[in-house]
C-alpha cells in the first residue's frame, strides 16, 4: 500500500509543477489554488509512505516520478524540445527508480 501511496504522491508532484507553470507566477487564481492543494496532498502522501518505506527510497522515487512526469508533460502539453540526450536522461532516471524499488526491503 505504501508504494501505491508513494506513486500517487509522485503524480501529484507532476500536477503541482504543471499548475505552478500555468499560474504564471501565482498571478492566476485557479492554477495557484491547484498548485497549493496538490503540493499539500503530495507532501502528506509522501510523509504517509515514509512510515513504511525508507527515507532514501521514498524521497528518491517521489522526486524521480515528479522529474520524469514533468519532463513528459513539458513535451506533450507545453511543446518543450525533445532531444536524444533528454530522453536518455529520463530513461536513466527511470532506471534509477526501478533499482531503488528492487533494492528496497519494504
Automatic annotation (TrEMBL):
Recorded superkingdom: Bacteria
Pfam families in UniProt: Multi_Drug_Res
Gene3D superfamilies recorded: 1.10.3730.20
GO terms under biological process: xenobiotic detoxification by transmembrane export across the plasma membrane
Subcellular location(s) of the protein: Cell membrane
Keyword Transmembrane helix recorded: yes
Name used for this protein in its record: Guanidinium exporter
Transmembrane segments: 27-47, 59-78, 84-102
Amino acid at each position: 500500500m505504501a508504494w501505491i501511496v508513494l506513486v500517487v504522491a509522485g503524480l501529484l508532484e507532476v500536477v503541482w509543477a504543471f499548475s505552478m507553470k500555468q499560474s504564471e507566477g501565482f498571478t492566476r487564481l485557479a492554477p495557484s489554488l491547484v498548485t497549493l492543494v496538490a503540493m499539500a496532498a503530495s507532501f502528506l502522501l509522501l510523509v504517509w509512505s515514509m512510515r513504511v518505506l525508507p527515507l532514501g527510497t521514498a524521497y528518491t522515487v517521489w522526486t524521480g516520478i515528479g522529474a520524469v512526469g514533468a519532463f513528459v508533460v513539458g513535451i506533450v502539453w507545453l511543446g518543450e524540445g525533445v532531444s536524444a540526450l533528454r530522453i536518455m536522461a529520463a530513461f536513466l532516471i527511470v532506471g534509477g527508480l526501478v533499482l531503488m524499488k528492487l533494492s528496497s526491503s519494504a
